[in-house]
Write a structure and sequence with these properties.
By secondary structure, the protein is mostly helical. It is built from six helices and no strands.
Length: about 150
């Protein structure tokens, strides 16, 4: 009976880690492709920055912070490297986006829906971490944790 219990736990752990991998890859890739890549191209090409200033720190600084979150942090999350920090930065980014769209622009739920999804996905990843299919696990996990889980 003990073997069956270990088998069930191992299967649960693997399924859990695959779920975290899917969550990380899908949300980070879609964010990078839809928003981060374009912002990073604007910076690298030297184009003039036209952006909102939701927290009063200036258009350019706001743009650089958004580009860092939606570009660099999304890439880190895809890789599973510094995942909790990257997802925390993305969570904060989406709090600002949500407040701006909900309370300043007064957008409806149809506009806010996608912001909710990103916010809660990144919030969940902040709490759960990236799982064992990540560079964080490979580089920063202790050996005894790796042996116990696998």
């Amino acid at each position: 009976m003990k073997k069956a219990t270990n088998f069930l736990i191992r299967e649960y752990t693997t399924a859990h880690d695959i779920g975290l991998l899917i969550l990380r890859l899908v949300f980070a890739f879609v964010l990078l492709y839809g928003h981060g890549y374009g912002k990073m191209n604007v910076i690298l090409s030297g184009q003039e920055i036209q952006f909102m200033d939701p927290i009063g720190i200036g258009m350019e600084v706001s743009f650089y912070l958004a580009a860092f979150a939606e570009g660099i942090c999304a890439i880190l999350l895809i890789l599973g490297l510094f995942s909790r920090i990257a997802s925390l930065i993305l969570t904060i980014n989406f709090v600002v986006i949500f407040i701006f769209h909900a309370y300043i622009l007064g957008d409806t739920f149809e506009i806010l829906e996608l912001r909710y999804l990103y916010f809660f996905a990144f919030l969940a990843l902040t709490f759960t971490g990236p799982g064992k299919f990540s560079l964080d696990y490979m580089f920063f996990s202790h050996t005894e944790n790796k042996e116990r889980i696998t």
